[in-house]
Every structure is written in C-alpha cells, then in structure tokens.
Amino acid sequence: MQTGHLQVTPGETVDYEYIKRDLRSALAYFNVTGIAFDRWNSNQLVNDMLGEGAPMVEFGQGFGSMSTPMKELMIRVLNQTIEYSNPVLYWCVANLVADTNPAGDIKPDKSKIKEKIDAAVSTIMALGIMILMPVKKRPKSIYAEGVI
C-alpha cells in the first residue's frame, strides 16, 4: 500500500542523486537555515551539497548533541505540542528508547531497538538545529505594532 508517507530511492542501493534532487527541491521551497547530517558515510553527499551552497551542519550522535533536542522532542510529544501525522514518524517515535549517562543526558539507544527509528532521529537532529541556529530578525507583527 502506497500512501506517500515514505519516499524510497529507486534501485537496490541508496541513490544519492535522488536524495540531492530532493534536497534541492526543499531548499528552493523552504527557508532552510541548516541541514543536519551525521558525518558517518556522508562525505560525498555533504561535499556536493556544500558545493551548491546548501547550509550543511554536522550533527553528532552522542549525548552532547542529542540530549537537549531529544528532551525537547519528549516534552513536545508528551504535551502534544508537536504534530506528527506521518505514520512512519509516529512509528519511529514509538520505537525510540533513551540511553542515559550518569549526568542525566540522553540519546537514542539503537542497541535496544529492533525496529527503525530513523525518522525520529532526523526529527531530533532538526530540533537540535532549530535550537542551535540563531533566529533571524523577524518583522514585527501588525498586532504587536497596534496597526490592527
């Protein structure tokens, strides 16, 4: 059953040209300030996208990078302040298990999971970029200005 919630690259292996086309489309459509990537096995894709001016941001998978945005995702899920109507993301978030260090930091624990969590991890990374990136100066609201 195809519902459009998951895009699979054609062929038996990952088609990085397909992924780059998708990234280019997103960059043209959205105001992208950062694209988080895990440095493992991503050199060529990242270098190609940097060469095209994409705002690629290395995002580690350890406690230091993952803890704050994973806690933010947990808060948003528990408070129902994040909408994730994509059933693939819902499934991945439901599969997520936290690994905790002595300092109370958390990160996804892939060793305790049999199912996929990739969409949840990419959401955590996106939240991390959102938290880390400076907010661009936004125009004031017409309501705050007293125009209306």
Structure report:
With 148 residues, the protein is mainly α. The chain folds into two domains: 11-58, no CATH class; 60-134, no CATH class. Helix content is 43%, strand content 8%. The strands form two sheets. The protein has a two-stranded parallel sheet with strand order 1-2. A two-stranded antiparallel sheet has the order 3-4. Helix 3 (63-78) packs across helix 5.
Could you tell me the number of beta strands?
A: 4
Number of domains: 2
Q: What structural class should be given to the helix and strand makeup?
A: mainly alpha
Uncertain regions spanning at least 5 consecutive residues: none
Strand content: 5-15%
Strand order of the largest sheet: 1-2
Radius of gyration: 18 Å
Helices and strands, in order, run as HEHEHHEEH
Mean pLDDT: 87
How widely separated are the two ends? Answer: 49 Å
Global shape: globular
- Biggest β-sheet strands, sense, barrel: 2 strands, parallel
Q: What is the helix content? A: 40-55%
Distinct helical segment count: 5
